[in-house]
Amino acid sequence: MLIARQPVFDTEKQVIHAYELLARNSGLSRFSPPTSDYHSWFDIDKAVLDLADQLLKGELNLLVNVSEHTLAVERRFHQWRTLILKLARKHNILVEVTELVTPSTLQKRWDSLRSMGVELVMDDFGTKYSTLTRLHDFEWDIVKFECGQTNGYTSCMLEGIDACMRKGIPIIAERIETYNQAVSSQMLGFNLQQGYFWAKPEIVLHSQLHTRV
């Protein structure tokens, strides 16, 4: 299992705005969700948080993902929440709610997530459950959009971008891999950008994680 950090770059101020902690199976070429195994998701969510305090120094923002599997199970959610609250004493934490988190699970956990005092981020707008309905139904601090490799942003994404602008919600462009993508995204209002064009993920841990039942 590889754990890495990748910066979110502020193109206006020309500084690193935040680091996102990422995890992937070591056999894969890209950082992506681990496996479909129910327990693996929680183990990875927890492993990232266990290492977070060591990996991030200073006062930069720290983005961490939370999965459906962590949010859905009471015991695991409270373990994860305890770790987040501990980190939040030292760092500005941004929690990314992945697009695979179901509406029922998010509704169940929203008040508890909000009470943690961290910023809540909708990940991958326009994918799976990260919809316009979800954008309007909850008070998000940030919304992330993934730049397409060929067609840029879909009409659904453009509608989401417009909604964020009207609500005053900051937006982040992900998977920016070329100069043209960076420029076109900035023209749409994406001053915060993340992707290989700016920096590849820096591997900070390579280890074997053992899942627990």
TrEMBL record:
Gene3D superfamilies: EAL domain (3.20.20.450). The lineage of its organism: Bacteria, Pseudomonadati, Pseudomonadota, Gammaproteobacteria, Aeromonadales. GO terms for molecular function: cyclic-guanylate-specific phosphodiesterase activity. It comes from the Bacteria. SUPFAM superfamilies: EAL domain-like. PROSITE patterns: EAL (PS50883). It comes from Aeromonas bestiarum. Residues 1-213 form the EAL domain. This is EAL domain-containing protein.
